[in-house]
Structures are given as structure tokens and as C-alpha cells.
């Protein structure tokens, strides 16, 4: 059982950690009206903080070289699929007709957005957000949902502290990765070395590092996530992966990913939505500390 718990938790991490299955109804999904108070920074200020990080980040109103503006129509339309700058002005003999070249243009746009996302990610030192996570397992007919706070401080600190189920926690303290799910079993704690967990303890690296080399991206269009305008992208792994496909929703203003969705080989869908995001702010050491509760047994993996 303890190995199952550990494996299940590690699969949730790549939302960095976790996932959300199925789109929430408007009644279930709180709006982002409290963003300013919780994040302590306006969107413009947050973009400025990112730009002052390890890597300067240019304004993200238009994907670099993507030819997509704030007022662009969805990528699936003809208007959104403008030819890239590198493409010859006229077709050569035997070249596909314009309509047949639209998908390549959308991929160029998607790659440009991914490059901006990666540049933004490289400037993040600390990360804090509320999360809503869900998992749909068609084989079992289950659909679970959880909420909480996510914290990260590079290079090796990470925590997901759940408010529902209350008390569940995953913590990387710099040496070990701890998993304690009292909602499932109050007597078991799973401990794994940071080296074994690897990039799964870093949400940004897990999906956004070298993304254009690791995935074939497609720009699907525009969607609103938590009250924010985003680009919706589909990423298909080029190499072996535990996922068939990954979807991300990228904020059009600050290039932060607002939602991750992973479809696994067994067609289970994990989704993680991030709200009230705060980057490069102070994050207490105490958030990354964990002591096994009295009466629990620690299983090393």
C-alpha cells in the first residue's frame, strides 16, 4: 500500500503538481477577484518582478514572432494562422496550398509562446499559489477533487499543503521528499530522497524546461481561466513519457501557466489549476519542514 501511495503522489506532482479533471462549474470554481489582495502585486508589478529575475522577460502581450495579437481570433481560424516571417512570400511549384500550411503556422505560434513561457520560468526563484486539483479515472469511474496551497523555492524546496482533504501534505525539504496522507492512512509516512524524485519536485522544470525540444506543440486558441485571458496549447511528447498528451493554459499578460492537464496512458486525466499566483516573494522555511507525527511509521523508498 505504501508504494502505491508514493507512486500516486509522484504522479500528482507533475502539476506541480497535481491535476484537475473536468472543468469546474461556475458554482464550484471561485473567481479570481481576490487576486490583488492575495498576491500582493498587480499583474504589471508581477511582470516587472519576473523581468527583474535571473532572466529578463519582455512584455508578453504578443508571442515573440508569433504574429498573434491580443485581439487575435482563435488559432483554429484562418485569420489567426498568418504565415511566419521565414516563409517565402509566394508558393513554389508543388508547394501546398495556403489552407494546407495553416497547421504549421499554428505550430510556429505555439513554439513562440513556449519560448516565452520558458524564459519566464527561468526567472522564477520562488512560487506560491492556491491550487485546485482533480483526477478522473475512467476505468474506475471516479472523479476526485482537492484544494490547497502550493509553495516552491528553487532549487530543492517544494510543498503542497492540502486544505481538502485537510492535513494531507507533500514536502521536499532539501534532502527528502515526504508524503503524508492522513485522509487515507494516518499511520504511514513515505520518505524518498530528493535525488530519486528529480525534476518532479520542480513544477517549472517538469514541463517547461526545453519544452520546444521535448514536445510538439499546437496552439488551440484562447480561453479564460480564473478570469484571466490565456493561450490554450496542446503538447505531444516527442520521447517516451508517462503522458499521452499535456495541455497548458498560458496567461497572455505574464506568460505564467495557469492550468496544467495531463492525459495518462490509461486515459486518466489529471488537472491542476493555479490561482492567486505570487512569484519571487518571501517564502518561509517553515513551509518546507516536515516531522512525522507521533505514532506513524516511515517507509523509505
Layout of SSEs?
Layout: H1 2-12, H2 35-39, H3 43-51, H4 102-122, E1 126-137, E2 142-153, E3 157-164, E4 166-173, E5 176-180, E6 188-193, H5 194-197, H6 203-208, H7 211-214, E7 215-225, E8 228-237, E9 243-251, E10 257-264, E11 269-279, E12 297-300
Parallel strand pairs: 6-12
Antiparallel strand pairs: 1-2, 1-11, 2-3, 3-4, 4-5, 5-6, 7-8, 8-9, 9-10, 10-11
Write structural notes for this entry:
This protein is an alpha+beta fold. The chain has one domain: Lipoprotein localisation LolA/LolB/LppX (outer membrane lipoprotein receptor (LolB), chain A, Clam). It has seven helices and twelve strands. It has a twelve-stranded mixed beta sheet. The protein is globular and about 60 Å long. The two termini are 12 Å apart.
Amino acid at each position: 500500500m505504501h508504494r502505491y501511495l508514493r507512486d500516486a503522489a509522484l504522479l500528482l506532482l507533475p502539476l506541480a503538481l497535481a491535476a484537475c479533471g473536468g472543468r469546474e462549474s461556475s458554482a464550484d470554481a471561485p473567481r479570481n477577484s481576490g487576486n490583488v489582495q492575495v498576491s500582493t502585486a498587480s499583474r504589471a508589478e508581477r511582470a516587472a518582478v519576473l523581468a527583474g529575475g535571473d532572466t529578463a522577460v519582455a512584455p508578453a502581450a504578443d508571442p515573440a514572432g508569433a504574429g498573434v495579437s491580443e485581439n487575435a481570433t482563435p488559432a483554429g481560424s484562418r485569420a489567426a494562422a498568418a504565415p511566419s516571417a521565414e516563409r517565402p512570400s509566394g508558393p513554389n511549384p508543388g508547394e501546398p496550398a495556403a489552407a494546407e500550411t495553416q497547421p504549421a503556422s499554428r505550430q510556429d505560434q505555439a513554439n513562440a509562446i513556449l519560448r516565452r513561457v520558458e524564459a519566464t520560468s527561468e526567472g522564477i526563484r520562488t512560487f506560491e499559489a492556491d491550487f485546485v486539483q482533480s483526477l478522473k479515472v475512467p476505468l474506475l469511474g471516479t472523479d476526485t477533487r482537492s484544494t490547497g496551497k502550493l509553495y516552491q523555492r528553487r532549487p530543492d524546496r517544494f510543498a503542497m499543503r492540502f486544505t481538502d482533504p485537510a492535513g494531507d501534505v507533500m514536502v521536499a525539504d532539501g534532502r527528502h521528499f515526504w508524503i503524508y496522507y492522513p485522509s487515507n492512512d494516518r499511520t504511514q509516512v513515505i520518505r524518498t530522497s530528493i535525488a530519486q524524485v528529480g525534476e518532479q519536485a520542480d513544477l517549472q522544470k517538469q514541463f517547461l524546461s526545453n519544452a520546444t525540444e521535448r514536445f510538439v506543440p499546437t496552439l488551440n486558441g484562447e480561453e479564460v481561466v480564473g478570469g484571466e485571458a490565456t493561450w490554450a496549447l496542446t503538447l505531444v511528447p516527442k520521447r517516451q513519457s508517462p503522458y499521452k498528451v499535456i495541455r497548458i493554459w498560458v496567461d497572455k499578460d505574464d506568460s505564467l501557466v495557469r492550468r496544467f492537464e495531463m492525459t495518462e496512458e490509461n486515459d486518466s486525466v489529471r488537472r491542476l489549476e493555479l490561482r492567486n499566483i505570487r512569484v519571487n516573494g518571501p517564502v518561509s522555511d517553515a513551509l518546507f519542514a516536515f516531522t512525522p507525527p507521533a505514532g506513524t511509521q516511515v517507509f523509505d523508498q
